[in-house]
Specification:
Layout lengths: L7 E9 L2 E10 L4 E6 L8 H11 L3 E10 L9 E2 L1 H18 L6 H5 L5 E2 L7 H52 L6 H18 L5 H14 L3 H20 L4 H21 L3 H21 L4
Parallel strand pairs: 3-4
Antiparallel strand pairs: 1-2, 2-4, 5-6
Cofactor: a divalent metal cation
InterPro entries: YicC-like_C (IPR013551), YicC-like_N (IPR013527), YicC/YloC-like (IPR005229)
GO molecular function: hydrolase activity; RNA endonuclease activity
Length: about 300
């Protein structure tokens, strides 16, 4: 399955019996599916269907959908002028001008008076309304298809980036595993040196007890578990990327696990080289998690 980003934009236009239909849809990052609509007056009835259509197609994202509908000239209601009332008003305006010198009345001023101009509501049969609704929802499907393609295009780019980050995490994990400071001989020498330093500082210390304590601390500082878990997480990440689909939440959890292991590796490290690897690992994990935030 393809990966999808949560950002994208698409537009679709259609025509139904002289009525123009245009949808513009866009999405940005979101924890779940949130839909905001801008519908023309009189088409609010479509809101539940539009929301349901978006929610069925996508798993995550904040969506904004704008519908524009343009009626053909023959479908628009023709204005009706109350000519008798208009004549009376025009005559009154002339008398006021002659008797009191008021400014002459204008045509737009007279037509704006209540009762002069009326635009009757158009009547629409149930069949015609259902047909228009169907055409609008069909155009929405086209727009959402375009949005899905846009999100998948960006998702493909993100897959490549995330795969590169996982490769880098694996390479750093293997470097930490192979670091010379983890060789048994080096560890033994480090423990012996620590014991010698302590014995030189105080002759009253028990050498055997010091060796036991040093060995215990060396065991606690071992990063074998962190390396093993990092390898497991790398394998899990590759499986998720290969499977595709809505894996954003799963990869976000995996990013948290990568971060936890890299932090522990740094805290347990007793060699500058391993600490440097751990810090570099944290930087890559931060980039990985930032990119994951954009995935559905």
């Amino acid at each position: 399955m393809n990966l999808q980003s949560m950002t994208g934009f698409a537009r679709a236009v259609a025509e139904h019996e002289g009525t123009s239909i245009a949808w513009e849809v866009k999405s940005v990052n979101g924890k779940s599916v949130e839909v905001r609509l801008r519908l023309p007056q009189g088409l609010e009835r479509l809101e539940p269907s539009v929301r349901q259509t978006v929610q069925k197609r996508f798993a995550r994202g904040n969506f904004q959908a704008t519908l524009t509908v343009g009626r053909a000239a023959g479908q628009q209601a023709q204005p009706v002028v109350n000519e008798a009332f208009l004549r009376d008003l025009a005559g009154l305006a002339r008398r006021l001008k002659e008797q009191f010198g008021v400014a002459p009345a204008t045509a737009d001023g007279l037509l704006s008076l209540r009762g002069v101009l009326d635009i009757p509501e158009t009547t629409e049969t149930e069949e015609a309304r259902a047909a228009l609704d169907g055409a609008i929802l069909a155009a929405l499907e086209v727009a959402l298809g375009g949005l899905e393609q846009a999100r998948q295009g960006e998702g493909a780019a993100l897959r490549s980036l995330l795969s590169g980050h996982i490769d880098a995490i694996e390479a750093l994990t293997l470097r930490a595993e192979a670091d010379p400071s983890r060789e048994p001989a080096v560890i033994r020498e480090r423990i012996a040196e620590q014991v010698r330093l302590l014995m030189d500082a105080s002759a009253n210390l028990d050498a055997s007890r010091l060796h036991m304590e040093a060995a215990f601390l060396a065991t606690k500082a071992d990063i074998r578990e962190e390396i093993d878990r990092l390898k497991t997480h790398v394998a899990s990440g590759r499986v998720l990327l290969a499977g595709g689909g809505a894996i954003g939440r799963k990869l976000d959890f995996l990013a948290q696990e990568f971060n936890r292991e890299s932090n522990t590796l740094c805290s347990k490290s007793n060699a500058a080289t391993v600490t440097a690897i751990g810090l570099e690992l944290k930087a890559v994990v931060d980039q990985f998690r930032e990119q994951v935030q954009n995935l559905e």
